[in-house]
Amino acid sequence: MATITYDQKLILVRVMVATLDLKSSDIEQHLHISRSVVSRHLRGERDYPPIDMYLVEKFFGVRIKEFIID
To answer: Is 59 helix (H, G, I), strand (E, B) or coil?
Structure first.
């Protein structure tokens, strides 16, 4: 199985956000994090895995057992 590069991950995150028509404020409110954390993650400056998990759950409509967002 091929390993995804950081640039490819960043593109996937941006595609998921655009497809879901999410704004950074939507992510902030749902995950209860600051705007700077979200913007840095979306720009690729800092990695914050809960944002990735949230996007995967929303995009595919699944629940990830170890990561529950209420």
So the answer is: helix
